Amino acid sequence: ESVEGQKMQELRRSLPAYKEKEALLNAISRNQVIVVSGETGCGKTTQLPQYILESEIEAARGAVCSIICTQPRRISAMSVAERVAAERGEKLGDSVGYKVRLEGIKGRDTRLLFCTTGILLRRLLLDRSLQGVTHVIVDEIHERGMNEDFLLIVLKELLPRRPELKLILMSATLNAELFSSYFGGAPMMHIPGFTYPVRSYFLENILEMTGYRLSTYNQIDNYGQEKSWKMQKQTLRKRKTQIASAAEDALGAADLRELNPWTRDSLSCWNPDSIGFNLIENVVCHICKKERPGAILVFMTGWDDINSLKDQLQSHPLLGDPTKVLLLACHGSMDSSEQKLIFNKPEDGIRKIVLATNMAETSITINDVVYVVDCGKAKETSYDALNNTPCLLPAWISKASARQRRGRAGRVQPGECYHLYPRSVYDAFAEYQLPELLRTPLQSLCLQIKSLQLGSISDFLSKALQPPEPLSVQNAIEYLKIIGALDDKENLTVLGRKLSVLPVEPKLGKMLILGAIFNCLDPIMTVVAGLSVRDPFLMPFEKKDLAESAKAQFSGGDNSDHLALLRAYDGWKAAERQQSGAEYCWRNFLSSQTLRAIDSLRKQFYHLLRDCGLVENMEKCNTWSHDQHLIRAIICSGLFPGICSVVNKEKSVSLKTMEDGPVLLYLNSVNAQEPRIPYPWLVFNEKVKVNTVFLRDSTAVSDSVVLLFGGTVS
Ligand code: ADP
Ligand code: MG
């Protein structure tokens, strides 16, 4: 065994989970279901599945056991599998493998499979009793994702039919009772852990300590939207979540008399609706000047604010100096080389700063963190039951999350945590986050319930840990009826059955099916694949202008991000045939990794559509592939009612949706560059709320297209 390998084994034995190994294995053998909780980093994810595998091998059941461990995110399924294989001194695909959508490494002898929750649900579609599976481990259940909650209902129904199947639920925080009682009082096992004390500072302390002054001007300046500020604040206030308004009340009622007068003034300028980049820069700088080494972990809300902040910090004299600071990002779409850097200790004298999403809250443990900066928010999908459009917006985190974030600072030595909001706001946080099932559109889920033949949708969902609102369930059912996926009696129609086979949301599935029916399949497959993978257009901040004009050149005055994507993809395919794909990507600021993912998803779509009889031959189904009007119309039919009106002003374009009033376009949208848009409407796929509502990826459409392919707009 190599030195590296021995070190890893030593590390394994030093984890808190190791001491509980026998007790855990005992509990598993004596019970069908157990709930395991323990501090993040104690070894649940990487160790427990291995303990089971090892004990099965010892009991001479190694050849017949099949352990599935689900992860809420694809990136964790992949990185955990890689880590576990390395700990076992094996290659991925030997006894340990992984499977996520479009990718996987799994061999004939693979006995422990890490996969996303979605993959296990798809498997249940084909094999309702999970034949051959001996253990199911559902990880990170405390996150309460929609897929995980759904999976728990399905497994609960399955257990009596598979008495020998073992179910292990794993969670970081201590609300294990909830899950235990859901499974009829399943035993709870806790892995005791040790963390060093962490000192907390709230906004008022930070202001006093750093001397930084907040002003209303500063906050507006961050986003340069002074004019529309007032109006946005009003719209935001109207739609504010319960937590946020409670937070505001608490702030008003807080006893601030003990503070410096100027801190009090400064605090009254604090804007709860925005994330102050200047404040973060100031705090990070304050920490960097400290003697004590240790990495800084900054919790942000998502890819976009992480990138904007990174851009801002990079131009700072101290934070942008690579001889002193190593600035890294940690989010769901980072690449694997960047991921490795996150775990590595930097050279002496260099301060590591990781800007992360709430992924670093529980699924990833960075061992050398000593300082945590917590912006207090996380991006959440939320949902207007009335217009069926999902919306990603930053929302206040829960007390449980804030505690979890703070805990990240005390892994190796006593730490410090800087919460960028007043103490009184923390006091108003909810105890736990609202489960996703209660705040997202349920169309895909309802379709899945039907195709898994789980009976009445409402009855089934009423068996959830926390059942969703009847109005949301009703809306989803209505939507599925309108698009013709369900009939009047809530039975799956032929279309519904076909939609449930396609691994995309119903609205995107509908576009694919229309593309096939109208013989315009090729471009629609590209558009749908692009929408469900991610944007292939890169926007490096140092070269923003070049990147924007590279994208604009693909739009050709069509006023459509979707058509731009289509042309970029087609151009890349042509370049690939000439062996110049890489150069093409480099020249046009495109991600070849994303384009390849789009390419393989397209192939998958084609096979699936052929298997369900929607496509007979590749030539015929593309007779109308060059018809731009038709492509636009099919895009509209899928994205509707995600629509906003266009009014051309003298020098700018003003956009409005029915629910939000004025909205803005993401700067990388081709429509954001246009001085006027010669169409009355834009359809869009997604709204993101940063400080105001932004639309991502839009296509301009005419009145008649909206009437024929969308619906009525008032
Ligand atoms: P838990 O699931 O209980 O949060 P994990 O099993 O994920 O804990 O992690 C246990 C330990 O292994 C942690 O100290 C973590 O830092 C370390 N670890 C996990 N993955 C990696 C990796 N890819 N590289 C280096 N260390 C890792
Ligand atoms: Mg874990």
From TrEMBL:
E.C. number(s) listed in UniProt: 3.6.4.13
Gene Ontology cellular component terms for the protein in this record: nucleus
EC supergroup of this enzyme: hydrolase
Catalysis: reaction(s): ATP + H2O = ADP + phosphate + H(+)
Location of the Helicase C-terminal domain: 279-453
Domain Helicase ATP-binding: 25-192
Keywords: ATP-binding, Helicase, Hydrolase, Nucleotide-binding, RNA-binding
Keyword Nucleus assigned: no
One Gene Ontology MF term: RNA binding
Stated family: Belongs to the DExH box helicase family.
Name of the molecule in the record: RNA helicase
Organism: Lactuca sativa (Garden lettuce)
Span covered, complete protein: 270 to 983 of 1180
